[in-house]
Amino acid sequence: MPSASTEASTTVGAVPVVPRTPSVPTAREAADSRVAPGGPGYRRMSLALFLAGVATFALLYSTQALLPLISTDFGGTASAASWTVSAATGALALFVLPMSALSERFGRRAVMTASLAVAVTVGLLIPFAPSLGALVVLRAVQGAALAGVPASATAYLAEEVRPKALVTAIGLFVAGNSVGGMSGRIVTGWVAQEWGWRVALGVLGLIAVGCAVAFRLLLPAPRHFVAGSLRPAVLARTVRSHLGDPLLRRLYAIGALFMTVFGAVYTVIGYRLTDSPFSLPQGVIGSIFLVYLVGTVSASTAGKLVARLGRRGALYLAGGTTTAGLLVSLSGSLPLVLIGLVLITAGFFAGHAVASSAVSHTAKEGRAQASALYQSAYYVGSSAGSTLGAMAFHAGGWLGTVSMGLLAVLGVVAITVVGSRAARVQRRLATV
């Protein structure tokens, strides 16, 4: 895939730079005053968005490890119970673009704060759902509320962090996602084993409240945000511009396909491990999500991976790692299944961090909308993966789920090959 163009040099010379207007600094001033690793506010910013990522993923996938218990409690099938995941991710995909528009008008921090406040409030109500239908509705509301976090977080970082540190900063936010996904599943797994899935979701809701409060206290006020317009025509024009960019379209498709694999695997894995020959208890199944720590590492080191291999090389490596994990997971040996999950997780989070940071780097205007379109595609992939993965498991067992995942990874590789060819054509034209 063609590399995004680098920004112009930001070194400020001896002559002072005069801003064009009192509220909008020049590009050189803005770049020079953005934070960098080790700089003032960087640690607070990173920790705040890390905690936002923890809360978002913990809530978004809070029912995933509990699907067998929810199925039993409400007398539903695996496919029916999977809608408690698909409804949340699908609603997030639907609302992330409108939330990005609100973010452009009212500010990234304000939208993220409001989103987390609503989501954690709904999270405290979910344990009291009287039926599977009510649970699905509440999860959809929660997913819609959470849309404000991914719609705003990467745009906030793109505005407040120096360009060379952007991949690393976004990688830390993605790492927070992996920690949230892991801790949420572990907590719910062990609590549910002793007291049931309702208590488990209540405990997770209280943890998310703590993360949301800490996020608001830690996140520095934005220094480079400039309010945009809420006019539909302006939003439509920006969206058309992004969708007309071939590089952005490829990145959106890659994010969706990677998440299709991940959503399918982690929606179904609980059912596989509760069945023979494994027959694991709920607490142990929850602990298996400790493999998310691998995702934390692979996401946070994505910047180094891109620096060494380039964006396309990093995506090829992520796709190959995910493929190897899917194939290894077919084994009937529990240690090999775990190794397969480790490889799938490492490949997915690396690919996601590379693709999402490339979107923020590529879009020079309307970054919130560019990021929102990526997040929308990403969570459409998650919703599709959860539902299709469960259907494939019902039809063909774990082999069916793996086969679906391999097709999605093949799509990632094919799109990256197309991008590589487009880059070679551009280089030849540049030399003419």
Molecular structure report:
The protein has 432 residues and is an all-alpha fold. 78% of the residues lie in helices and 0% in strands. The longest helix has 65 residues, at 367-431. The protein is globular, with a radius of gyration of 21 Å. The chain starts with 26 loop residues before the first helix and ends with a helix.
Brief summary:
This protein is mostly helical and 432 residues long.
Tally the structural domains: 1
Radius of gyration: 21 Å
Give the % helix: over 70%
Total of DSSP H or I helical runs spanning 4+ residues: 17
Features:
single chain, 432 residues, mainly alpha, Growth Hormone, Chain: A
Give a topology summary.
Layout: H1 27-33, H2 42-60, H3 67-74, H4 78-81, H5 83-106, H6 108-125, H7 132-146, H8 148-160, H9 166-195, H10 197-218, H11 232-243, H12 246-274, H13 282-287, H14 292-300, H15 302-328, H16 334-362, H17 367-431
